[in-house]
């Protein structure tokens, strides 16, 4: 009588995915906290000058720094938990995909803020928070696998109310970063989710 073969490779893959997602999420949170600690204790908050100032040429390169800066520790604390949760859920699909998605959100979202946002200094990880949120929701639509749908449902259950943040309601909050981060996440999902061809059963990545 044959014994069923244990799915050790599957368990190993799942364990590696969890470990990888945990490592990159911890690294991301560590980077933004270390930056803010150094900014407050050593630089006196001067690093906030590297936020995005819309339509100012000297600020264009700040699209790469703004999502990792915060005005103060209160601002940072309010972003930390949703960033950690949504980044972890996003990274479960693979570290490489997570890093590429993050780059797309930073570049596309940041460029839209630079081009279209109100004047001021736009900074904060909420661009990433809404970017990962948009990516998770859009991936459920593009991928339609049970794991993608369940992950999106979990994100929606935890932070669905945050979607109101893409609308202008507080002049001191960069709703533009929320909106454009979300749209960049949707775009990242469209580009990075394999396209299923119903006739051949094969899929091709869209970049």
Automatic annotation (TrEMBL):
The keyword Membrane applies. SUPFAM superfamilies: Rhomboid-like. GO terms for cellular component: membrane. The chain crosses the membrane at residues 20-38, 73-91, 98-117, 123-141, 148-167, 173-192. It is a multi-pass membrane protein. Residues 59-191 form the Peptidase S54 rhomboid domain. Pfam families: Rhomboid (PF01694). InterPro entries: Peptidase_S54_rhomboid_dom (IPR022764), Rhomboid-like_sf (IPR035952). Keywords: Hydrolase, Membrane, Protease, Transmembrane, Transmembrane helix. One of its GO terms (molecular function) is serine-type endopeptidase activity. GO terms for biological process: proteolysis. The keyword Transmembrane helix applies. Its main location: membrane. PANTHER family: RHOMBOID-RELATED PROTEIN. This is Rhomboid family intramembrane serine protease. It comes from Deinococcus psychrotolerans.
């Amino acid at each position: 009588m044959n014994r069923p073969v244990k799915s050790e490779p599957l368990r190993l893959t799942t364990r590696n995915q969890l470990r990888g997602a945990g490592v990159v999420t911890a690294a991301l949170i560590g980077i933004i906290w270390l930056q803010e600690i150094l900014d407050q204790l050593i630089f006196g908050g001067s690093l906030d000058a590297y936020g995005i100032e819309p339509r100012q040429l000297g600020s264009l390169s700040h699209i790469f720094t703004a999502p990792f800066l915060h005005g103060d520790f209160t601002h940072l604390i309010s972003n930390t938990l949703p960033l950690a949760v949504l980044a972890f859920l996003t990274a479960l699909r693979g570290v490489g995909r997570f890093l590429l998605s993050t780059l797309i959100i930073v570049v596309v979202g940041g460029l839209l803020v630079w081009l279209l946002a109100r004047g001021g200094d736009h900074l904060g990880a909420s661009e990433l928070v809404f970017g990962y949120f948009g990516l998770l929701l859009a991936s459920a639509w593009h991928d339609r696998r049970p794991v993608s749908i369940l992950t999106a449902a979990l994100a929606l259950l935890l932070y669905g109310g945050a979607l109101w943040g893409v609308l202008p309601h507080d002049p001191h909050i960069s709703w533009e970063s929320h909106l454009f981060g979300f749209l960049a996440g949707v775009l990242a999902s469209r580009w990075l989710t394999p396209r299923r061809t119903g006739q051949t059963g094969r899929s091709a990545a869209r970049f």
